[in-house]
Amino acid sequence: MKKLIFIFSLLIPLCAFAGEKVVDKSSRQPKWVNGLEKDFLIVSGTGSTLETAKETALLQIKKQVLSAVAERVETESSLNVREITIEGVPDIRTQFLSEIKTRGANMPFLQEVTLSKASDFYWEKIKKNKEYFYRYHVKYPFSTFDLSKLMDVFESREMSLNLQLQEFIDEDFEEITAVEDISDKIAEVKVFQKGLLDGDSRFNVCASIISRYNKMYDNIFLKLESVSREKLVYGIYLGNKRLVTTLKPQFKSNCLTQMAYDIDGTVMEVSYSYESCYEDESNYLEVIYKFGLKKVSNQFFVR
Question: In this predicted model, what pLDDT tens digit does every residue of 159-174 receive, in sequence order?
C-alpha cells in the first residue's frame, strides 16, 4: 500500500488579525503557531472566554482527525458503492467524505482526544473593536502511525455494524413462531438504529426493515379450527403459518357467557356457556387482539 504522509495545518490570513491588539498571552509566541509541522495538528480556536476558546480548539482537532480518516478511506476504497433494496426502497451506501465524518463522530478514539495530550499550547487575549476574546493555539501529536491505529478502530466498527445490519436484512421470517417475535425484531433494529447518527445511510435501511416487520401485522388473521356450543378453537395465522402469542384477547358476544381462555399448543381455545343464547344463526363470539398498532379480530358464529 502506498505510504501516505499527512501534514495538517490551519492557515490564518494575516488580514484576519487586522485591528487586533494582544493585551495578554500565556508566553512568548512559539514558532509553530499558525505554521506547519510533520506528525502534528496545528489548530486554533476562539471564544469569549479562555475555556470556550479551548473547547473550540479541541473541536477543530477532532474535525481534522475525522478528515484524515475520511481521506484515507476514500483513497483506499476508491468510493466503494453498494446498493441494497428493501421493499422497493433503494439505499446507496457510498463512502462519501461527509458521511464518514458523520459516522466517525462517535468513535471511541475521539473520546481519547483531549487537550491534556497536546504537545504544546499558546493563548492570547485580544482586543478588537472595543471587545475582548481569546485565541487558543494547540500543537497536537498525530502521526501516520496514529492514523493507522484510528483506521483500524474505524474499520473494525464499520465492519461490525455492517455485519449486524446484514443479519437484519437476511432475517429468515420462518424463524418467527410467535407474534411477539415481530415486536422483538423491531426493538432490536430500533436499538441498532438509535446508535447511528443522522446522515448515516444505514439509518434508512433500518427504517425499511422496521417497515417490513410492521407490514407483517397486516397479514395476521384469526382462523376458525372448530366450534361447538361448549368450545371454540381458533388459530392465529401469518400466511399459512400458525403463530402463538402470550397476549390474552378480548371477547365480545351477543349471548355467550362465562368465557374462559386457554392455549393448547399452537391453537387457542375459548370455552363458554350457551345457556343464554336463543336458537339463532347469528349468535357469535368476537375475538379481538391488538398486535403492535394493528387491531386483529374475527367474528365467529356459534350455532
Answer: 888 899 999 988 877 7
